[in-house]
Amino acid sequence: MVGSSSKVSIIILVAFAITIPCLEGGIGEFDDFLKGQALEAHEIALESYVPDPVNMTDDLNINVHGALTEVFKEESNHTRRELKQKYGGPCLALNPIDRCWRCKKGWAKNRFKLAHCAKGFGRKATGGLEGKMYIVNDPSDDDPINPKPGTLRFGVLQKEPLWIIFARSMIIKLNYELLISSDKTIDGRGANVMIKDGSGLTMQFVNNVIIHGLRLQNIKSTPGGTIRDSWNHVGIRTKADGDAISIFGSSNIWIDHLSLSDCEDGLVDIIQGSTGITISNCHMTKHNDVMLFGASDTFTGDKIMQVTVAFNHFGQGLIQRMPRCRWGFFHVLNNDYTHWLMYAIGGSSAPTILSQGNRFIAPNNNAAKEVTHRDYAEPSVWEKWQWRSENDVFMNGANFVQSGPPLGKLPFNKGFLMKPRHGSQANRLTRFAGALNCKANSPC
């Protein structure tokens, strides 16, 4: 088994190297520096890849069950939720990620605690844990080559690990695509930080990044040009697509407690051999193409893609792709799908999708009751794809078309898959999805 896994890794690495000249991802000029960065990033991705994800389960996943052992008095779970519900009671941490750090009065004095809270395939992400604190006190974004100290762009481009926080609430309009380097945490807790009306956040050929507690809204396509993409390299970029979050050839990424809406392209795109990623506790609204995991039906390098999507609320105004998957392994658990217009979960190129403990509330349109959508394949082909539903709750006529054989017994001992609660608990587990209104010296 070990020998066969090594051969697969070598084949994928060679295929990736051959594909490098064809990469897009906003790169206008693929020079020797970027080629080296791409190969290094892919080697890290292969190290992060779990050859048998079904049998690699999270050592803390039983906490998903423990997270709801207490009985909370809250709204019934049989109706659609409003876009945002006010809550004035005591701090509640209802899922295992939140239980790791929330509801502790001293969270602001121990921000680095967050680095130990990731679960799922992105559980290795520690971000800027080993670095210093960097404070953003300037919301401007005027120079993409030599950004000013104090700006967000200056912080994310530094060589060393950094834990990036914000001096106050601010609106940041990124005039150019923001390329984030390895070993960074962007921590918006304690301030209302909104990225809007400009470009979005990109992780390209990097490793170990945490993005937490931001609001990204109305992200637009922005011009390319000469842009610094790391502390020691300036490159030519093409026009940015308008994604809120773009993950390209990167590994060990954790996206948590973001509020995402109304962007020109996708809310979260994960492509080009990225792996080891968790998207959790996010609130997504008012968008068409929500999440794209794998951009091409011909790029087999995405077979190493492994993504956890957990405790998110897919809310008002969403149309499709929650997510839309290719090639890899995708664990979708304990999310609350209260709105979609076309479908919720889709894919092509034989991805493996394990849907567990989600709540799906179908739209009133009888033509859009099906949760799943398969592209570019006849039933005789896609019936072999492993798309399995376990302990999901289906409401208002929602239905999940399963395919392929069962994934087998999941031991849930140590590894990367979290054991879910039943779908009837999904709205509780996701109740505080999105950016939180945290205040220092108070539970968050």
UniProtKB/TrEMBL annotation:
It catalyses: Eliminative cleavage of (1->4)-alpha-D-galacturonan to give oligosaccharides with 4-deoxy-alpha-D-galact-4-enuronosyl groups at their non-reducing ends. Its cofactor is Ca(2+). It is an enzyme of class 4 (lyase). Pathway: Glycan metabolism; pectin degradation; 2-dehydro-3-deoxy-D-gluconate from pectin: step 2/5. It comes from the Eukaryota. InterPro entries: AmbAllergen (IPR018082), Pec_lyase (IPR002022), Pec_lyase_N (IPR007524), Pectin_lyas_fold (IPR012334), Pectin_lyase_fold/virulence (IPR011050), PEL (IPR045032). Keywords: Calcium, Cell wall, Glycoprotein, Lyase, Metal-binding, Secreted, Signal. It holds the Pfam family Pec_lyase_N. Residues 169-366 form the Pectate lyase domain. Its main location: secreted. It is found in: Secreted, Cell wall. Residues 1-25 form the signal peptide. Binds 1 Ca(2+) ion. Required for its activity. Its EC number is 4.2.2.2. GO terms for biological process: pectin catabolic process. One of its GO terms (molecular function) is metal ion binding. Belongs to the polysaccharide lyase 1 family. This is Pectate lyase.
